[in-house]
Amino acid sequence: MPTDPSTRALSGQRSVARKLALQALYRWQLNECPWQDLIQEFHDAQDMPRADREYFRELVEGVWRAREALDADLASWADRGPALLDPIEHAILLLGVFELRHRPDVPYRVAISEAVTLAKRFGATDGHKYVNAVLDRAARALRPDEH
Questions:
Q1: Which of 6, 87, 99, 131 has the fewest CB atoms within 10 Å distance of its CB?
Q2: Where are the domains of the chain?
Q3: Rg (CA), the chain
């Protein structure tokens, strides 16, 4: 746990941003739309004042833009294709792989831990175990020097 109060605050704001990004990406899977519509739709979300808005935007836009490459990555680390994944777990995995691939400033343990926390809160009963296993494989491939 970060000890610097400003680091703790940023960490908390990013956690809220990840949660909102998960909700936006879940919504997008049910009804596809441009990423800008998702940003606008979640602009006034109840938790948005506590979120890192810029990080929320980066996650949603980044996953939306890289979705095909992220799904190709997921297909190589998961035991089933992305289309067969539960939509919540799919969105969590997209976020986790995005952070592992595109956000080297986020330690791999943080990316995995945040994803597992989201899966425990929003996913199926044992979905967090699956998310953990897939993202661990992803971290070994994407961050071999850090893992």
A1: 6
A2: 5-142
A3: 14
> Which CATH topology does 5-142 take?
N-utilizing Substance Protein B Homolog; Chain A (1.10.940)
**Nearest-angstrom CA–CA distance, 95 and 117:** 13
pTM of the shown model: 0.91
Q: Of 44, 46, 62, 55, nearest to 14 (Cα)?
A: 55
CA–CA separation, 100 vs 67, rounded Å? Answer: 14
Closest CA to 85 of 117, 124, 121, 45: 124
In angstroms, the CA 105 to CA 87 distance is: 27
List per-residue pLDDT tens for the chain, 147 residues long: 455 565 666 789 999 999 999 999 999 999 989 999 999 999 999 999 999 999 999 999 999 999 999 999 999 999 999 999 999 999 999 999 999 999 999 999 999 999 999 999 999 999 999 999 999 999 999 999 987
